[in-house]
Write a structure and sequence with these properties.
132 residues; mainly alpha; 2 domains; 65% helix; rod-shaped
């Protein structure tokens, strides 16, 4: 008479390769737990916590300096634009008298945008990957 087991039918196979050191560690863990390799892997799959890999761009002094400069410049430009708006609202000054200031403020914003994109591009080119 054939012995029947009360286990689920498993038809999927997982294959992987290990280095000598990895296999030695795996075998040691399997022996310590006193279970088969297959059971150890099944339990590792269902009961372990997976640590995601996170990719970050390192922050350097150049990046911090650029962001600090950007913040200060945006503050100055915002102040200038507020003065222009206040002048237009309070005194009804014609737009032609202020057009040079408006153009200068827009040019400063465009220059800052270019500088920020350049610094970010340099930082992104230096990406590193970490596992938690």
């Amino acid at each position: 008479m054939r012995k029947k087991y009360n286990t689920p039918h498993r038809s999927r196979v997982i294959k992987t390769r290990l280095t000598g050191e990895e296999y030695a560690e795996f075998s040691e863990r399997v022996s310590f737990c006193q279970m088969s390799q297959a059971e150890y892997i099944r339990q590792a799959l269902t009961k372990s916590r997976i640590r995601p890999v996170i990719t970050v761009s390192p922050v350097n002094d150049g990046m911090l300096s650029a962001v600090g400069k950007l913040t200060a410049e945006y503050g100055k430009i915002g102040g200038n634009l507020n003065q222009i708006a206040r002048c237009l609202n309070e005194y009804g000054a014609p737009y032609n008298a202020l057009s040079n200031e408006v153009r200068a403020a827009i040019a400063e914003l465009a220059a800052l945008k270019f500088e920020v994109l350049q610094k970010v591009g340099e930082a992104v080119g230096n990406v590193q990957t970490y596992q938690l």
